[in-house]
Amino acid sequence: MNKIFALSCLILISCSTAPRARQVRFDLEWIRSTLAKENYGFHHSERTSPIIEGQRVYQGNGLDSFVAMDRDTGDVIWRFVVRNGVESGAFLDHDLIYFGASDGQFYAINKNSGKAVWTFPTRVENLSSPLVSAGIVYFLAGNNVVYALDAKTGKQIWLYNRGDVSSLSIRGGTRPTIYKNTLYIGFSDGYLTAINPRDGTLLWERKLSSNIKFVDVDATPVVEDENIWISSFDGALFCLSRSDGQIQWRLDDGGSVPVTIQGDNLFYSSLGQAVYLLNKKTGALKWKYSFEEKYGVPTQPVLYKGLVIVGASDGDLMAISESSGKLLAHYRPGAGIFAMPALDPATGRLYVYSNQANLHLLKVAWHRPQDELEWQAK
Q: What is the CA radius of gyration of the chain?
């Protein structure tokens, strides 16, 4: 009897002292509003992703302003007031921040002072993030016109007018991509185009969707070697030939955000409330993580130390295992997330911009459950 009792105690001691697997967690450091004044009106979706540079994080909101904040404290350093706000996304190049705004203007502002260096009138709302390359800023205005401006002066170099479409269109737009002297950009009429970046002439076009409505190609094209990966809103994810747009493979689940590529892996957030891991060359499925429809649609994936991090437009921030596709952790911001989170890979700090214009600073961390008190683990 004593031997049995001793053996039982040994088993209990071994089980209690065995190391338990670490768990991923989002640790909140602070939350700050970016608004000049509180919004007591309608629920507002925020589409502009944070930009991290040096000791600052730059953020535009869709109601009243664009701000520079201290990345450690969240204190506002300067504020640039914009009527009707910024929903397009921004691009930082050297000392200038470029963005289109909902007041019908495109801006270049100094990152240090927050003062406008130049403005360019588009006379329509601007919902697409710009691109700066070789001293030229490219962007798509809300009326399907692509502009190429001198990045220092704002002087127009050329424009490509696709024309307004009569069918229904989703609010949003693609950011242009340049690869080997070709500009790739999608339009709300369902076409992906290849354009000469020097003069704006059309090189080729490929129709990606023929649905009755919502044919928009709002995702930013991702180009590597001889392939382009891009999705259409009501259509599919496509892998296309870079030279002529011929379809190599497709996944029948539409999307509106860019894919994320790492090696041979392609991570894709779809409008079907799913995150996919595919082989980028063949489209072969490795795993698929689906979540409830009530949580909306996921943001572009962010990769960090074996994690796939996405936000949901009406739900949580989620950390998914890169190897298994299983949910490991989540964080509830309170109003959903449209904008892609910004990660500092050196520190594991994650800047998450939630709807209603709140910027959250989180730390992606691993904890052992036995090292926490009960109330900390909840």
A: 23
Domain CATH number, residue 52: 2.40.128.630
Please tell me whether residues 111 and 193 are part of one structural domain: no
- Three-state SS for 263? coil
> Per residue in 262-277, pLDDT tens?
999 999 999 999 999 9
Residues 25, 28: Cα–Cα separation, whole Å: 10
Structure tokens at 305: 């130390």
Write the pLDDT tens digit of every residue in 124-145: 988 899 999 999 999 999 888 9
CB 319 within 8 A of CB 330: yes
Question: Range of 181's domain?
Answer: 174-255
Confidence of residue 115 (pLDDT cuts 50, 70, 90): very high
Angle at 90 between CA 103 and CA 104, to 5 degrees: 15
In a domain, 337, yes or no: no
Alpha helices, DSSP H only, in the chain?
A: 2-17
CA distances in angstroms from 159 to 134, 147, 303, listed in the order given:
17, 5, 36
Last residue of a domain, one of 229, 255, 281: 255
pLDDT, tens digit, 9 for 90 and up, residues 171-207? 667 899 999 999 999 998 889 999 999 999 999 999 9
Q: Are residues 189 and 155 in the same domain?
A: no
Out of 119, 146, 164, a domain closes at 164
CA 205 – CA 211 distance, rounded (Å): 17
Our count of domains for the chain comes to 2
76-81-85-90 Cα dihedral, nearest 10 degrees: -60
Residue 375 has pLDDT above 50, yes or no: no
Inside any domain, residue 310? no
Same domain, 195 and 154: no
DSSP class of residue 167 equals S
- 160 and 66 share a domain? yes
Angle CA 190–194–200, to nearest 5: 110
